Amino acid sequence: MHFAPDMEEALEFVVSLGDTDPGASRSGLDELETLADLAALLAPISFTGRIDGDDAELRDVRQTRALLRRVWTLGRDDAVIEVNRMLREARALPQLARHDVSDWHLHATVPEAPLGERMRVEAALALIDVIRSNEMSRLRLCEADSCTGLVLDLSRNGSKRFCSVRCGNRMNMIAFRERKAGETIPPRPAHE
């Protein structure tokens, strides 16, 4: 599946944000508890505009995480309702922008808008492409036991099942052990 580069980046960020949740994180802990956690999440991403770095912003981003994790698993029609609500609440006005090393891409909020709002709107813009392409099945939860990691399946055949190689390897090892345990040992032939 192929989306515009800025849309893929926005979807990949939703995965990064969503996977800070305790059920999805590598550590099994909430990886978005502190301002330092928020700074670490933002470090590899070129978020432009206002970043307050305060507790109110952290709370808003945590609420955004919960919302986007929920929207990720909705059916197409229900996702439309949430996407439209996010855009309406932000009074989003999509415009093309080019800055830094990024070529033309969509922005729909002003740089001074709160960080959580900008995250929600960027996710909503990316979800518009997913919905219009009827590709909501590309957004799902990891199939590994006790993992709620987000899966963004950009493969051609839509067959990605796990959020990470780690989860895939873990489930393959479990399946291997179950097969081995289920094998019966043939009886030895009786000696005359």
Characterise the protein shown here.
The chain is mostly helical. 47% of the residues lie in helices and 9% in strands. The chain has 6 helices and 4 strands; from the N terminus they run ααααββαββα. The strands form 2 sheets. It has a two-stranded antiparallel sheet with strand order 1-2. A two-stranded antiparallel ribbon has the order 3-4. A hairpin with an 8-residue loop joins β3 and β4. The longest helix is centred in the first third of the chain and has 18 residues. The chain is elongated, with a radius of gyration of 21 Å. The model has no long low-confidence stretch (mean pLDDT 91).
List keywords for this structure.
elongated; 47% helix; two-stranded antiparallel ribbon; 192 residues
Q: How many separate helices?
A: 6
Based on secondary structure, the structural category is mainly alpha
What would you call the shape? Answer: elongated
Helices and strands, in order, run as HHHHEEHEEH
Mean pLDDT: 91
Give the C-alpha Rg: 21 Å
Work out the strand percent. 5-15%
**What strand order characterises the main sheet?**
1-2
- Biggest sheet, in brief? 2 strands, antiparallel
Total strand segments = 4
Poorly predicted segments: none
The end-to-end distance, rounded to whole angstroms, is 65 Å
Estimate percent helicity: 40-55%
